[in-house]
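Reviewer 2 asked us to include a model.

Predict the structure of this chain.
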Amino acid sequence: MNRQKGGKGKRTERGTKDKRFANQGQRPSAKQTGAPAASKKAKSAPSDEIRLNKYVANSGMCSRREADVHIATGLVSVNGKVITEMGYKVKPGEEVRYDGARINPEQKAYVLLNKPKGFATTTSEGKGRTVMDLVANATSSKIKPIGRLGRNSKGLLLFTNDDTIVKKFTNSKNGVARLFHIELTNNLKLEDLKKIQNGFKVEGKLIEVEEISYIDGASKKEVGLKIKNTGNTIIRTIFEHLGYEILSLDCVAIGHLTKKDIPRGHWKHLTTQELNTLKML
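Predicted model (structure tokens):
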């Protein structure tokens, strides 16, 4: 009995020794070293929150040091509340305004696409092929198209995340004009062309265009139409109201921007000069 107990004791000692050697070469646990255990917060994924001064600086308004001054003087608000706290962090989806104007921490991007037929102008998924597929690799910024071109329409379409530029286009009176090359199934009568030029009402709403004219060297089925409205529905309304069907619709210019050097289905970033001119329109 005593021998058996002794043998059992040796086995226990040897097992403990083996276990000790097995732990060699492994990182000691917090319990073994006496160090405090890592908190769950330290192990969690990085937060999507961003410091307010960095948010303001990333928007391109100013440097981070200057942002601190603007925050301290009460020029910055989050969700309508003025924030003067230096360490304040902005959560995803919150609305940040600087001196009353909404700002975005993303780098501003301006992409001009020469849209082909067969692509819907939408940012929604499940709509088949969309213009967003064509500019997917243009920038990491969350750009959206300004205005619309129908799936079977083609031509220039401008994308940006700059709210100032978007507002410039959506102002139908002082906005940016777009020039369309339109082909109809029938010749456009001169009297109807003048009617469009002078403006007329459809269901009580006045419809006006900047210019309209026949295309030099082409049949009376083809016209050039300049309009500040951002959609192409209004164009179809104009001709359908007068009894014409549009065969082809092509946006050939947006303000001073043209399709030069942009093959169909391709895009380009606006140059500094093109952007500055656009802002001055």
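The mean pLDDT is 84. The chain has three domains: 50-102, 110-172+259-270, 178-254. We have added this to the supplementary material.
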